[in-house]
Write a structure and sequence with these properties.
single chain; alpha+beta; Alpha-Beta Plaits; FAD/NAD(P)-binding domain; 3 domains; seven-stranded mixed sheet; five-stranded parallel sheet
Length: 530
């Protein structure tokens, strides 16, 4: 795929995407019909000189992809992007039992797929149900407040990312990101994820992709055991020898642990088994909701509403002493959802459909905490999350309603909620409460300072009608299970901690890549079964 950058067009162009594409093809001096596909890889607005200008990067795939490298230097604005292959060489040791993958979120899903494609016929444990049943459970909870502790926004096929914006942006810069994107496309993800600067699938389309990947795993000899949780580990001569599950014991010498950031019972089991858990940084805060149209006015200025522009997104941060206040998981045109996985605890998350057509924008506004706050004790950090969720549940009045207040009220510590143009979208309902009182004073103070700084960066962020809904506590895992260069647990060979729950990823893309690397470590040790 070729990328042609820096194509600048005034807003007055009637069909800017077509014009930008024509200019890109002209820059490459391509013969008519040479391109197999074209698309917008990046679109930004340059308003620095008063009159906004659209700035495009166009992605072009040739019918003869072998001719692309020769064109990469056709002009300074032309570059090539390649999707890497992923074909780890198998080892020689005999494989006595199937490798086991625990968890079917992004890390577990891609680990299982890699193992299946390499001929290893993995056995996958998923504590929650298959996706269709999971969707029904989530919808039932949103409507009635009846919580299934194993079928919710945190647990079930697809993991927590299934009920999100389906973002694929990441900062890891790993070459395997291209392989993940290609795999998602093979399984029905929208074509534009191949070239968008900030690709997203959307929760609605992501569900079909997940079902399709699982079907490939099963077609290649893998097996998924739904409603089956990991409850213990068997050890023999200092190495993993088996797994205890709710469906009974399993013999296994290699287990990819991809349980996700909310598997608190699993974290406790690992600690009780004597495995050293490190306390890693995470963040807590709440969800901020604004009108999407107002966010776009602040981002795009005069260009707001132009049909060529994508839904406006933002990412903000501000350091307050030794902490960072920042926005996370921004969902344009999305909604705030009830993300509880335990009785008596309320928490929020954000979700968008592919069209991002909702009236509100929402994002987590959170402040960092870390090992120093909990004496390095990972289980104390988990307990802190739980305490915040229980406080939010009480403040919401029960039934998994959430506490909420206007931004200006939070800045003044008033606990007031006046619903105006921004109507809260949290599906279990909201109740006016003082969010600052639910957090330790230092954290509430840092969030207030951060919000004031955000107003200076994005006009209208603290507008009177803006709403905060709380609390957001599951931004990432508070736990890391130490592993070595061979991807195995430093304290238990045969156990491969990976993904977000083990403390090595944050988001769909990085978790999927980490799952691939864990699978590659298993593949590199053994010969596939025949």
């Amino acid at each position: 795929m070729l990328l042609v950058r820096g194509i600048r067009l005034p807003l007055t162009v009637c069909a800017p995407e077509q014009e930008a594409t024509a200019r890109a093809l002209q820059a490459l001096r391509l013969a008519p019909g040479a391109a197999a596909a074209t698309g917008v890889a990046k679109l930004s607005v340059d308003a620095r000189h008063g009159r906004p200008v659209l700035v495009y990067t166009i992605a072009i795939t040739l019918k003869d992809e072998g001719a692309e490298p020769a064109l990469a230097g056709a002009a300074p604005c032309v570059a090539i992007a390649r999707a890497p292959a992923f074909a780890p060489a198998p080892g020689a040791a005999p494989l006595k039992e199937r490798p086991v993958v625990c968890g079917l979120g992004p890390a577990g899903l891609f680990a299982a797929l890699a193992l299946a494609r390499a001929g290893f016929r993995p056995l996958v444990l998923e504590r929650g149900p298959a996706l269709d049943e999971r969707v029904r459970a989530v919808e039932r909870f949103a409507a009635t407040g009846c919580l299934d502790e194993n079928a919710n926004i945190q647990f079930g096929e697809g993991g927590a990312g299934t009920f999100s914006d389906g973002k694929l942006t990441t900062r890891i810069g790993d070459a395997l990101c291209g392989y993940v994107t290609h795999t998602l496309l093979e399984h029905g993800a929208p074509p534009e994820i191949a070239w968008r600067q900030k690709p997203h699938v959307g929760t609605d389309l992501l569900r079909g992709v997940i079902r399709s990947i699982r079907a490939e795993i099963e077609a290649l000899g893998g097996r998924v055991l739904f409603n089956t949780a990991l409850t213990g580990l068997a050890v023999k001569k200092g190495r993993l020898a088996g797994a205890e599950t709710t469906a009974g014991p399993l013999a296994c010498a290699d287990l990819v642990l991809a349980v996700g950031h909310s598997a608190r019972d699993t974290f406790a089991m690992l600690a009780e088994s004597g495995l050293p858990l490190e306390c890693k940084p995470f963040s807590v805060g709440f969800r901020a909701e604004h009108l999407q149209a107002e966010i776009e006015k602040s981002l795009y200025h005069e260009a707001a509403g132009h049909p060529a522009l994508p839904r406006g997104e933002y990412q903000l941060s501000h350091h307050v002493g030794g902490r960072c206040v920042y926005t996370f998981c921004m969902c344009p045109g999305g909604q705030v959802v009830a993300a509880a996985s335990e009785p008596g605890g309320a928490l929020t998350n954000g979700m968008s459909y592919h069209a991002r057509a909702g009236e509100n924008a929402n994002a987590a506004v959170v402040v960092s905490v870390g090992g120093a706050d909990f004496g390095g004790d990972a289980l104390r950090a988990v307990a802190f999350q739980r305490q915040l969720e229980q406080a939010a549940f009480r403040a919401g009045g029960g039934g998994f309603a959430a506490p909420a207040e206007n931004v200006q009220s939070f800045l003044r510590g008033e606990g007031r909620l006046e619903v105006g143009r921004v109507r809260p979208t949290y599906d279990r309902g909201v109740r006016a409460a003082d969010l600052g009182a639910l957090l330790p004073g230092e954290l509430a103070g840092a969030l207030r300072t951060g919000l004031a700084a955000f107003e200076r960066k994005l006009r209208g962020y603290t507008a009177p009608e803006a709403v905060l809904t709380g609390l957001e506590t599951r931004t990432s895992s508070p736990v890391r299970l130490a592993r070595g260069q061979d991807m195995q647990c430093a304290a238990l060979p045969g156990l491969y901690p990976c993904g977000e729950g083990a403390g090595y990823a944050g988001g769909i893309m990085s978790a999927a890549v980490d799952g691939l690397r864990a699978a590659a470590a298993v593949i590199g040790r053994y010969a596939p079964q025949t």
